[in-house]
Amino acid sequence: MLIKKLASALAAVTLLALPLAVLANEGSYPHAENDSRNTASLQRGARNFMNYCSGCHSAKFVRYNRVATDLHIPESELQKNLMFTSDKPFDTIKSAMLADDAKKWFGTVPPDMSLMARSRGTDYIYAYLRSFYRDPSRPTGANNTVLPGTAMPHVLADLQGVQRAVYKATEGEAGKGEFEKFELVDKGSLTPAQYDEFVRDTVNFLQYIGEPIENTRKDLGIWVLLFLLMFTSFAYMLYKEYWKDVH
Predict the structure, then answer these.
(1) Would you give per-residue pLDDT tens digits along the chain (247 residues)?
(2) Is residue 140 part of a domain?
(3) Pick from 88, 102, 128, 166: CA 20 to 30 A from residue 96's CA?
(4) DSSP at 202
(5) What whole-number distance in Å separates Cα of residue 209 and Cα of residue 203?
(6) Phi, psi for 205 (deg, rounded to 5)
(7) What CATH number is given to the structural domain containing 56?
(8) What is the pTM of this model?
(9) Residue 124 in contact with residue 111, Cβ under 8 Å?
(10) 152-183 burial, b for 16+ CB within 10 Å, e for fewer?
(11) Within a domain: 159
């Protein structure tokens, strides 16, 4: 009986220890298949974020020097190639765009990306960055099937190319109905496979900045669970020893 209760408690602790992103990833989006232990991928993701995202998006809960330390990036390389909004390595990652300008150009301030992967899930971001399509009715000329009416322009169009969304016809009206597929209209500088890898690296970096100690936490959690299992075994043997003569 005691063992069953302890096992139930351990299962509850394990469930509570699951990161928010795991729960957020449940859905119909394609799996990002990113690997937060892949340092090379994280380095490429940092490059992608700084060059294509930090002009509009901040990551105000992350410091440049923390990124350099965790991803094994020499500080000289960090300052030369990855720092565009500050010259102090201990600064947090700020957007180059002023909030007033963002509201004037896009109607809203682009969200901070520090916790985006934790709040929306890596699969959501992966799907979003692959789902832009041409839409002349939008102010930016682009829309997104994952987030219809998005204010974000397709900043990666030069890499992915421009695609159009194809919908299943409903009641004979072309262009209306359920989304079916994308068709590439103008090619980008990357192949579809290369672009998917680019997005995967970017998502990987966003997962990392959402919780830089994630891997440490997971590794420590395994040792904690092993200790609890060992402690449970000793507690059970002690219980049996104390009560062996009591019937």
Answers:
(1) 444 444 444 444 444 444 444 444 445 899 999 999 999 999 999 999 999 999 999 999 999 999 999 999 998 899 888 998 888 999 999 998 988 999 998 899 999 999 999 999 999 999 999 999 999 999 999 999 999 999 999 999 999 999 999 988 765 555 567 889 999 999 999 999 999 999 999 999 999 999 999 888 988 899 899 999 998 998 888 888 888 777 5
(2) yes
(3) 128
(4) H
(5) 10
(6) -65, -40
(7) 1.10.760.10
(8) 0.79
(9) no
(10) bbbebbebbbbbebeeeeeeeeeeeeeeeebe
(11) yes
Distance CA 193, CA 35 (A): 17
Number of domains in the chain: 1
User: For residues 214 and 100, what is the distance between their CA atoms, to the nearest angstrom?
Assistant: 35
- DSSP category for residue 147: S
Locate 224 and state its tokens: 């904690």
Q: Is residue 23 part of a domain?
A: no
Distance CA(149)–CA(247), nearest Å, equals: 72
How large is the C-alpha radius of gyration of the chain?
24
Buried b (16+ CB within 10 A) or exposed e, 27-64: eebeebebebeeeebbbbbbbbbbebbbebbbbeebbb
